[in-house]
Amino acid sequence: MNITRENIDALNAVIRINITPEDYKPRVDSVIRKYQKTANVPGFRPGMVPAGMIRKMYGKSLLVDELNTLLSETLGKYIYDNKIDVIGNPLPKKSEKEQVFEDGENFEFLYELGIAPEFEITFPKSKIPYYQVKIDEQMVDNDLGDLRRRYGKFSNPEVSEETNILYGEFNELDPDGNLMEGGNKTTTTLSVEMIKEVHDRKPFIGLKKNDTVDFNPMNVLKNEAEVAAMLRVDKISPALLSNYRFTVMTINQVEKAELNQEFFDKIYGEGVVKTEEEFRAKIREGIASYFGRESDRKLKKDLRLKMLEELQVPLPDDFLKRMLIANQEKGKELDASAFEHEYFHLSDDLRWNLINGKIAKTNSLDISEEEVVVVAKQVLHQQFANYGMYDLDAAKLDDLSKRYLAEENNREKIERTILDQKVFDFVKPQLKLDIQEFPYEKFIEKIAEKTEHELEHHH
Q1: 3-class DSSP state of 176
Q2: What's the pTM?
């Protein structure tokens, strides 16, 4: 067997594999002997079928199968032994010689390779905006109130008051004020305190079970996200702007937990917090930590975009496009426009993975098995928590995490997540950040805004 590599350019190469009968004949003969033992051919007892007959019946297909196996093993070993950093999968290329798949023939196979580019890592020298939320006392008050309600005592008064949470059914109304046939219908809670205007709140005070109120949730609550979540509709749905009839099913009252040592210990552990001032400071820390993650998420996105633009990492684009086209599922081929759009995002992901990988390798940012297992357990714990299952047995979680990591792509996803975070944690201190602080509403707006790059390529 003879293998040679022909470099087309820095990003493309062709591997030429010449195979002689001496390379494949022992493999084919071995398979034929196995077939002799198991083949069921009329006129012959099991295990007594002549090798020549097996060769005549199955020889060509066996030859092709063994050649494919031999090629796969040989090509993989050659790439590994020669430390060729490839992108994508090798792509078969038509040989200049016509192949005749007959036993005893010499064969030549060609494979195109996409080669990972050589490039140097440099971090942005210009400042990158870093948005932070301005934590005011109202935010601390809101979180404090939420905690007091969550750990408070519940009761069900007969008549509703301003501090009640009503549980009931929303039914969409038609323009004439009648129940709309096939209209939106959902059962959920409505906090009277969420209604800011006194005149809007008044119809919801003094209600009893089965009483109804006709109103427009958007006009009364004036918060698109909250109303969409409450009515369980998309923000673009016409049902978001409709009038609704709300029928009271139960009235709930929460007596807020008292600000005492018992309450402090429940939230932060015994003796960690001793005064209301310390408690509020802890809440402030929690808010800062939560929104700090949001700040970092936005910075990660901006950093990725800036480094992709500045480093200009080249790819074997023509090779990758042909590889993707060859691998498209039959009947689900993309048209030219959709394909180019998908390739744009794929190529960005590939470039970023190369940048991430190089930063990690250069700076020995390794991932341990222990780290992978910890994150896998966190993922599973969150999944079960979504179904109200919070206390998983440690041994059960160990077993589930092993199975989870053995499933296709799960380990790769977790390792990529860990690597992304490690690279970000390494790069962030080296960046020049333009720290900008905004009130909550403006902060949310800033971290949600799309760049020109995203607007141009997002469909």
Answers
A1: coil
A2: 0.71
What value, to the nearest 5°, has the Cα angle with vertex 229 and ends 448 and 226? 65
Q: What span, in angstroms and rounded, lies between the C-alpha atoms of 359 and 122? A: 10
CA distance 378 to 375: 5
**Which residue's structure tokens are 């059962």?**
187
What are the tokens at 307?
């480094």
Amino acid identity at 377: K
Which helix (H) or strand (E) element contains residue 309?
helix 276-311
Tokens for 291, please give them. 């929104």
Pairing relationship of beta strands 185-191 and 128-133 according to DSSP bridges: unpaired
For residue range 159-208, list pLDDT tens digits in order.
999 989 999 999 999 999 999 999 999 999 999 988 989 999 999 999 99
Amino acid at 274: K
> What would the two tokens of residue 383 be?
């999944």
Q: What is the pLDDT of residues 298-336, one digit of tens each?
A: 999 999 999 999 998 999 999 999 999 988 888 888 888
**Helix, strand, coil abundance in the chain, percent, nearest 5:** 50, 20, 30
Can you read off the two tokens belonging to residue 414?
């977790």
DSSP symbol at 449: P
Domains of the chain plus CATH, in order, are: 2-115 (3.30.70.1050), 153-255 (3.10.50.30), 275-457 (1.10.3120)
CB burial class (10 A; 0-12, 13-18, 19+) of residue 61? exposed
